[in-house]
């Protein structure tokens, strides 16, 4: 009767060893942290849907045109000095269709990457991480507009008659900055001790 608990204790020790290892985290070394190829493909597929609907309210997101593809590639930075819109047009026409599906689009990317000597994974990575359609271009445009407005409204850079319309702080002088108002005080121009006679005598 006394041997049975000893066996149970021995069994418990054997059983608890893997549980302790699992609780320490040694059983599964950071598997969720590494992205799987399926996740990357899913991102590209989602982007494909978004850009295939961009500019076409009737699109169901299953077919993409050359112009939509070019917009996507420009936003992602795929189209540059090495890959141009001429290249994308030539390879897109090989599919012999004005609109292509996601499967055919993958063939288009493979053909383009092979011909231009670019890694396919690099192209897909850029396409997957470029954001929603129009987001980057809108941000860049607004930033450029703000920069232009700031440059054109900087009164310290004004010259000629325009410079006379503002004071040192950049505040407009109003009509005094636009017209020569005659000074009827009797003092000559540039005299700095105006109205000081009564104070000193």
TrEMBL record:
InterPro entries: EF-hand-dom_pair, TPP/p25. Belongs to the TPPP family. Residues 25-42 have a biased composition (Low complexity). Residues 15-42, 157-201 are annotated as: Disordered. Pfam families: p25-alpha. Residues 164-182, 192-201 have a biased composition (Basic and acidic residues). GO terms for molecular function: tubulin binding. It comes from Clunio marinus. One of its GO terms (biological process) is microtubule bundle formation. This is Tubulin polymerization-promoting protein homolog. It comes from the Eukaryota. One of its GO terms (cellular component) is microtubule.
């Amino acid at each position: 009767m006394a041997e049975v608990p000893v066996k149970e204790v021995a069994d418990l020790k054997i059983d608890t060893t893997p549980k302790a290892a699992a609780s320490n985290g040694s059983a599964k070394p950071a598997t969720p942290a590494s992205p799987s190829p399926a996740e990357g493909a899913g991102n590209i597929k989602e982007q494909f849907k978004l850009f295939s609907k961009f500019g076409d309210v009737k699109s169901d997101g299953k077919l993409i045109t050359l112009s939509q593809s070019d917009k996507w590639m420009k936003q992602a930075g795929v189209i540059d000095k090495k890959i141009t819109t001429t290249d994308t047009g030539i390879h897109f026409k090989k599919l012999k269709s004005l609109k292509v599906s996601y499967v055919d689009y993958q063939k288009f990317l493979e053909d383009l990457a092979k011909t231009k000597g670019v890694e396919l994974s690099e192209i897909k990575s850029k396409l997957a991480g470029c954001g929603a359609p129009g987001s980057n271009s809108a941000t860049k445009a607004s930033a450029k507009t703000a920069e232009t407005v700031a440059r054109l409204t900087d009164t310290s850079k004004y010259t000629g008659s325009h410079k006379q319309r503002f004071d040192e702080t950049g505040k407009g002088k109003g009509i005094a900055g636009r017209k020569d108002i005659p000074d009827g005080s009797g003092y000559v121009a540039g005299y700095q001790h105006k109205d000081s006679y009564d104070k000193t005598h």
